[in-house]
Structures are given as C-alpha cells and as structure tokens.
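Researcher: Good morning. I'm working through a list of sequences from a screen, and I'd like to move beyond sequence-only analysis. For each chain I'm collecting a predicted structure so we can compare shapes side by side. This is the next one on the list. No need for commentary yet; just the structure.
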Amino acid sequence: MPKRKRSPPGKPVNNSTKSSETSNGTASVPSYRFWLMKSEPESRIENGFDVKFSIDDLIRCENGTDCWDGVRNYQARNFMKSMKTGHKAFFYHSNCKNPGIAGIMMVTKEAYPDHTQFDSTQLHYDR
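Model: Good morning. Structure tokens for this chain:
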C-alpha cells in the first residue's frame, strides 16, 4: 500500500474523492475542507520562553480563543491569510511522544499581523 502524503502545516486538507469541474469542463481547485494547525504540547525552552501550547492550553484561554503567533514560514503564513472566520482546523500536536490530531478548532478571526514581531521582549520578535 502506498504511503499517504501528509499536508504541510496550514495546508487545506481535502478529503473529497470526486473532482469538481468548471462550466467549461476543466478541473477547478479543490474546495476547502479543513486546515491543519501544528503546535507543540510539551515544554521546550527557547531563548528563555516555554513555547509549549496544547489544545488544553487553548481551551483554558479566555473564550477558548488565542492568537496563533510565531509563524515565520511564508507558505504557512500565506495559508493562514486564506483562512476565513468559521473555517475549521485540525489541532495537530507535533514534536511530542504521541504526535497527531488532538482535536478540531474553528477560525474566529481572519489573518492580521503578528503582534509579537514588534515587541523586543517577545520570543518571536523580528530582529
């Protein structure tokens, strides 16, 4: 059996098996299904900051929402710009003992600049 290719972080996951066609009979881009958002649930200290963030941490946040900061990969950032309010995403635990999908979350706000990039006291400050 061939290996299944994993989607990179933020890439839309399309689980549809039928292809859609435009009115002129050519194939169109697959429609959105779910996004994949990666986070590290186990403690890891980077420049004096613990970068741990699990689905349980998200649930404990006020209203169960938080910003998704620290994204510096251009492809992942561009995928995040494509996300719309109400879209759903798989919350993926990576770099841990049991990596995998830990739950499903919903996009509550469309993309905006990462506030941590401008604050020199933050881990993700752009130097």
